[in-house]
Amino acid sequence: MGELTAEAVVDRMVPREPQVSPDGRWVVFVNAPAGHPGERPVSGLWVGPADGSELPRHLAPSAAEDREPRWSPDSSWVYFLSDRAERGKRQLYRVDPDGGEPEELTDRRAGVTACAPMPDGSVVLVAPEEKAAAADPRVRVVRSPSADAVAAGPADAPPTWDTVDPPDRLWLLDPRTRTVHPLGDFGARHVVEAAARPDGHTVAVLTWSVADREPGRFDPGLDLVDPATGARQDLGVPAHEAGSLTWWRDDAGWHLAYLGVTPPGLIGGNAVFDADGHRNLTAGMSVCPIELAASGDGSLLALFAEGLDTTIRRLDPAAGTFTELLLATGSLHDLSAGGGRVAVVGSTATEPDAVHCGPPGGPLTRLGEPPLRGIRWGSQERLSYRAEDGLELDGLLVLPPGRTRADGPFPLVTLVHGGPYDRWADRFQLNWFRCGQWLAAAGLAVFLPNMRGGMGHGHAFAASVAGDVGGAEFTDLLTGIDLLVEAGVADEERLGIGGGSHGGFVAAWAVTQTDRFQAAVVNAGVIDWPLLAATGEHGRFDAALGGRENSPIEYAANIRTPVLILHGEGDTNVPLSQAELLHHALGDRPHEFVVYPRENHSLRERAHQLDCLHRTRAWFSHLLA
């Protein structure tokens, strides 16, 4: 058996966005290496029979980024976005699924953001105004109302903002003539998502008040637009973080569903909403919806996170509940459906991400060969335990390859997921930072805890950390570590902790509260909640999670654990200032501070992912030896 290398981690091909053709015969999907080979991503489209009778083949290859494939309603074309004509600027193309050269349908100076093919052959586009392309993207201007403007306008007029991102608009393209005309009038609002009703008679449109989250305000709106006249019908204000607009129908006609944050408040699990009155269709469920998809026969399908696993469910209109069709061990994501089949990207404890297809109730067939064969993997164990207050928790344990619990105690690294609304599913643990198998290959045991605040256990579980991050969720983490120490799996004298984003916060918080950890890695972590609420993309949500008393910077003088700090230079979610605070607070105490140029909240470039993998494993291996 071969040994795992960092190159194998970042160069492996990762599929996403599988789309079943409406006739159910084909699946097209995007395939891309985990790490960008250069500063810009490269990805390709692959297509294969939905029954898995042949291996998928590369469709219209290029050395560019091809993404967001969409089938025409008659299954005769694959529409997709690509920057093959000019890198960094996506245009709309279509290609025959049997092969051949793709046809470029747009040549917009500002590019295209998204598309939705219509039954009559036209295509709804989401794209910026052409005049917006003249602005220098390196110049950022944020303008609040001037004193004169405030005096001249209504007393309650909201601030207006010019941001680096020009707002997207809605357009309608006629592929035969290449003509594009605006669709609907949304004023200054930014179009985020559009979903055409299958009969083509209306388009659902999600908008924000601004094109980015810089002001901390992105108040959502939801409308229906008539593609023939452009007439707009206001459906009212949707739930926070609305998205995944999906049409379905019953005997009463067509309905629109979407995902959003469960009310009340800003912190909590996702829910499925009916756009008519914004009624919560998943109220009281102890599981969490992840994605929605139209089935192709008019019904509504959804993926649900259920503890460590994932289910496919169908809405029963009569009962108003979601009925389970398939329980999949591990994770499923990127659900689509058509012709009586579904396609998803699935992963289990022993198999990395792969496209699977089959009936909604299963069985699902993997399309293509299994990736990363011939490598020795660590065993992955499901954990179930109770918190101090009796709350049921779960998690995972990854042991070094060829080892069992009887070989312990091991040096233990606890990796904390981000979010906090996220989870560790019983899936393959291998990427540039969710690197359980990478650390296990170095002889480390890895604990992946699902503390309260995460996904998969319903709204109350997720909402319990609001205003109390670092409280009971941290106790949940320590309880899991204590159980592994008591079981002889973990060595109390060789404990490490790491995490990214909210997980980075927990890692930083941990070393301000205890000296139990001999090594810590803080990647894009939150160090000061009030500062993040003022400077990050999710200001209102961050303010609802924690305040000064929950901020690691307040207790940084307590840190004795060596800390590796990793951060993207251009992070707009958790700005670099957070890492700089921790770096300066640590002073001459043992730590390293690494800033990755050109990176946002998640590392994308191959060289940076390789560096992160090597640096993280070396940090833990050295300090926990």
From TrEMBL:
Hydrolase in keyword set: yes
UniProtKB keywords: Hydrolase, Protease, Serine protease
Pfam family of the protein (one): Peptidase_S9
UniProt domain Peptidase S9 prolyl oligopeptidase catalytic: residue ranges: 437-624
Secretion signal span: none
SUPFAM superfamilies: alpha/beta-Hydrolases (SSF53474), Tricorn protease N-terminal domain (SSF69304)
PANTHER family: DIPEPTIDYL PEPTIDASE FAMILY MEMBER 6, SERINE PEPTIDASE S9 FAMILY MEMBER
Name under which the protein is recorded: Prolyl oligopeptidase family serine peptidase
Organism ancestry: Bacteria, Bacillati, Actinomycetota, Actinomycetes, Pseudonocardiales
